[in-house]
Hints:
Blueprint: H1 2-24, H2 31-34, H3 45-54, H4 61-73, H5 87-122, H6 127-140, H7 144-158, H8 177-215, H9 218-225, H10 230-252, H11 254-268, H12 273-283, H13 286-314, H14 316-320
Amino acid sequence: MLKTVQFALTVWLVLTLNFLLPRLMPGNPLADLDNPLGAPVPLSQEARARIMAYYGLDQPLPIQYQNYLRGLARGDLGWSIYYKAPVGHVLVGRLRWTLGLVGVATVLYVGLGVVLGAVSAWQRGSALDQGLLLTTFATGAFPAFFLAMLLIVLFAVKLKWLPLGGAQSVALLLAPWPQRTVDIARHMVLPVLALLLTSLADVYYLTRNSLGQVLGEGYITVARAKGLRERTLLFRHALPNALLPVVTLASLRLGTIVMGAMLVEVTFAYPGIGQAIYEASIARDYPLLQGAFLVTMLSIMAANLLADGLYGLLDPRVRRAP
């Protein structure tokens, strides 16, 4: 019951902040429409009043908040001022790119961090261990967007191995699906690499330290004395117990990697949620900002719930707890 109340309060707080944050931004929400250079025909006073009334911007803030909650209850995220389309349709088209980017980067950095951390803990103090410590520390010190710019300069500008940005080549939009798949994968390499390199260190360090402690436990010594193979000892007995804090860390870091992905998307002009938030921020598109923030926050909360479930699968004591 307590968890249900806490979850409900968290959802209400998220929805309230989602409403307030765009309105705390300086500027006019209709600045993009009022700009004579951005629109072929400047808005008349009558047209401006109609648009303000349509979006409820002429109402007091409490009334706007009530209308916002009523719209969410109906599943209506509003109409994007910038794209002139339903916010839900805009976000669905953008969300698939962000989910692909974050999903691939998360699987790779968690998997690689666990493997490298296990190898480093197993060979603690060796030259390989020291090299991995130095490399992960160096890559983890860079902000994601800064490392993304370095990767663009090296692999896209200097070596010309990979595209500068975007999610796919315009010339291949009508190409057969195998060719399009390869093109999309090539465009995803640098953004994923930027997120992977900047997120790897935490999982690597935690796995290395956690596994080092587990390897010193008495049951590991007993299992080794029984003649179990070293590989079986590491991957079947030691590593599952060491993964418990890694699951917690990965769930807590999901918000960080999502925010990092948004900055990386802007750097690479990748058409995800981050790029949509950037464009909506410039245009002061309140409905699109609210929808994008809402999708982002709810995705992070869903990932935390998933992490709780995975924690229960890895630790039988959690499943047996009242």
